[in-house]
Amino acid sequence: MVDTARRLPNTSVMATRNTDTARAQLIQISKVLSLEARKGYGDSAASQGIARFVRERVARLGAGVGSDDRRLLQRLDGLFAGYAVMSEGERRRSIDDASRIVEDLLAATPSSSRSVLSPGQAASTPVATVRQPPTRERPLRRRVARSQVKSLADSVRLLPGVGEGRAAQLELLGVRTVGDLTRLYPRRHDDYSNIQPIASVLFGRATTIQGIVQSIETHRTATGKQVVSAIIADETGRINVMWFNPFVARQLAAGARVSLAGRVEQMRGTLCLKSPEWELLDDETLHTGRLIPVYPLVKNLYQKSIRPLARAALDATRGMHEEFLPPDLLLDEGLIGIADAIEWIHFPDGATPRAARQNLDAARRRLAFEEFLALQLGLLQRKHAWQSQPGTAFAIDIDALRRFGESLPFTLTRAQRRSLSQVMRDMAHEQPMTRLLQGDVGSGKTVIAAAAALIAIRAGQQVAVMAPTEILAEQHHRTIRALFDAMPEDLQPRIGFLSGSVSGQQRDVVYLGLREGTIDLVIGTHALIQEPVAFNKLGLAIVDEQHRFGVEQRARLRARGQGVDVLVMTATPIPRTLALTLHGDLDVSTIDELPPGRQPIETRWLPERQRGEGYAFIREQVALGRQAFIIFPLVEESEAVDARAAVDEHERLSRDVFPDLRVGLLHGRMRTAQKDEVMLQFRDREIDILVSTSVVEVGIDVPNATVMMIDGADRFGLSQLHQFRGRVGRGAERSYCLLVAGDVSSDGRSRLQAMIDSQDGFRLAQIDLELRGPGDFIGTRQSGLPELQLASFADVRDLERARRVAEQILAEDPELATVAHTLLRRRMESFWASATLDVS
User: Fold this and answer.
1) Which single residue of 96, 356, 431, 747 has CA 20 to 30 Å from 735?
2) Is the pLDDT of residue 84 over 50?
3) What would the DSSP string read from start to end of 328-397?
4) What span, in angstroms and rounded, lies between the C-alpha atoms of 153 and 837?
5) Each residue of 337-363: pLDDT tens digit?
6) What is the signed CA dihedral for 703, 704, 710, 716, rounded to 10 degrees?
């Protein structure tokens, strides 16, 4: 064991060699030793092995030194003899002992003074020497009180620098434990790995420079702001730096050796850095000189504060993240281990900047696959658990279905017939049905739902249809009742309606009818899953716009009966491949064609200056007896958002633009009764123009409406724009969609052009997915699915692969109960713990 208290003799290595060159060699050794420890002592920190790396550096340092130094360097070299075949414990001791030797060498070797040239000076021109302040050199190897952190579940308060206030800030980010902090993944990484001499920096480029603070001062601008100005110099030149944070002046002093990273800008004709990241060059770089993690933040929590905390959490938990993916899976999928993935997703290391970026990509891919696998395991287990319950094998009344079809005023499309066959097959099976029926706006999903309801009712069961809003529930009530009213009277079911606005005696009649079985079919909102509701024999639950309900709400509706069949519907198209994998607990039926006779909706993009032309066109259509929608992104004006608002625009349009027409107003803050009254007035042609917010995305069927004008169209997602457009074109007359948008971003232009080019909701959904990438594409916050931190639903190939892997694992071990899958089950449960289970 090396005596770390012993100080090196005056005739040190650095006394006989160029101090800066030797010091650079020692720093390089220290960094590699630190990296080897972080990577779990796998002899992977140096490309040709630790032993060879240290031997080469010792050889460069050892020429011409005194005997004491030579013996110390020989001891350093000897610590790694046979390192490749050592046990992990032996390697750990070797790294610890070697780190102490390097620390002692560095402590006895101050940095030499430097000559710093300004950009215009020749190398021979003498300049003032900048003296390094007499500060104590801190060891490069990080020292974290690991003894305090015993497990990933330990409080983040055990980390140095985390007091009550900082812990409260971290809790707002979902971080309570040290393990949570290691799983707080950066939103991105800024590339400051390009360390350059000051003389070679270029305007507009992101760069890292390292040098000495020549001068630093604080002054006030004409507006009273405090500005910190500094001059940083290295052997090649000087550069001006400024910060708009007065605290920097308290942390930096002339003579300090610093590393700075940022984008090179110009000020009064000279290059400068404004508000760069910076850090002292006496520890491992966290903010400069590498790929820098950028974390989500909350008020008064800054990147410079959270990066050291993340580093401390990683150091304190080294070796605690257990590998839960089977070794053969890692090999088959080409995935790195969990330890490297957790380390590199924060601070990717590598021998070169390119290698560091490759390691970051490898970490992202591993952790994204892990999220996809946990998602699929949870969904498939849910499906297995539901379908393992005893269900009802419905007897299909073919004659009733035939008579239902004959009563329809149209012929089912091929896609509708295919979907109905899939539903009938599921309902005839003893396993409970769990099927998603997806189709574009106006594709005829409601007819399939009505046919499924008829099957269940003819088999002696009750049916519940649940919609997310009263407007949509009322729409279904009218549509389904009209479908059944056209049938022979002996086949017509007894229908009830239940929502929050149904009260008193009317509500009690529905409750009684459901309990006694005198109501066959009830249509309503989430009022159907409230406690007073009890069914006599619920056999089929139909949920519309399923992404607007939590998974838990669907489960509560199913729980109203025994082995209930479930059919969920959505008019938000999802590419079929994605739907099959994303809705892992559901089988998928897709209605991918529109009924014949549906005319395409002509879509135009109007710049803001042409808004008046849009109003004139609406006036022409109203003169022909038609009606129009005008949609706005906000209810009321907001200082935070530069967009028009429905309430104010309704007043302006009524007063200045259409004073002679009947202009109505609809928005989400209105009471349900008010919204229903406006909707009925518009449907009954008592309103010519309906000004609305996105509340009309679903639920209003007005065949006489032929114009949909969307003001601020670039502020809506592509799928939502397509939903708005689907509110028109429901009658026999030609219909139009006018997209009004001014200063549009690149993504906004892509969305608007896609709307003009395509009427295919599934095609638009794919484009929307590609444009929006990861995040809340299908409303995971509403659907009850966990949030994905790294995985993107656009990565369909990885999602499909995770689906197949999950199926294989569950085929062998449905409950993940074996020892081999214990850790995997824990990871899945942890992942699903973040799901939104109830949004009622």
Assistant:
1) 747
2) yes
3) HHHHHHTPPPHHHHHHHHHS---SSHHHHHHHHHHHHHHHHHHHHHHHHHHHHHHHHHHHTS----PPP-
4) 23
5) 999 999 999 999 877 888 888 999 999
6) -10
Structure tokens at 193: 């790995």
Higher pLDDT, 763 or 653: 653
Count CB atoms within 10 A of the CB of residue 226.
14
Q: Give dist(CA 202, CA 219) in Å, integer.
A: 27
* Cβ pair 755, 721 in contact under 8 A: yes
Q: Sign of the CA dihedral 121, 122, 126, 127?
A: positive
Residue 360's pLDDT is 93
The proportion of the chain whose per-residue pLDDT surpasses 70, expressed as a percent, equals 85
* Cα torsion 487, 493, 498, 503: sign: positive
Contact indicator for 690, 677 with CB cutoff of 8 Å: no
Torsion angle of the four alpha carbons 807, 810, 812, 815, in this order, in degrees rounded to the nearest 10: 180
Pairing state between β 238-243 and 226-233? antiparallel
pLDDT in tens, 395-419: 999 999 999 999 998 899 999 999 9
- Tens digits of residue pLDDT in 678-705: 888 998 899 999 999 887 765 567 889 9
Is 357 exposed, middle or buried, given 0-12, 13-18 or 19+ CB atoms closer than 10 A?
middle
> What DSSP element (H or E) covers 577?
helix 576-582
Is pLDDT at 667 greater than 50 in this prediction? yes
Cα(476)–Cα(300) distance, rounded to whole angstroms?
49
Q: Would you say the C-alpha torsion 60, 65, 71, 76 has a positive or negative sign? A: negative
- Phi, psi (deg, nearest 5) at residue 310: -65, -40
Q: Residue 260 in contact with residue 209, Cβ under 8 Å?
A: yes
Distance CA 325, CA 718 (A): 37
The C-alpha angle 552, 183, 186, rounded to 5 degrees, equals: 110
Cα dihedral sign for 783, 784, 785, 789?
positive
What confidence score (pLDDT) does residue 283 get?
56
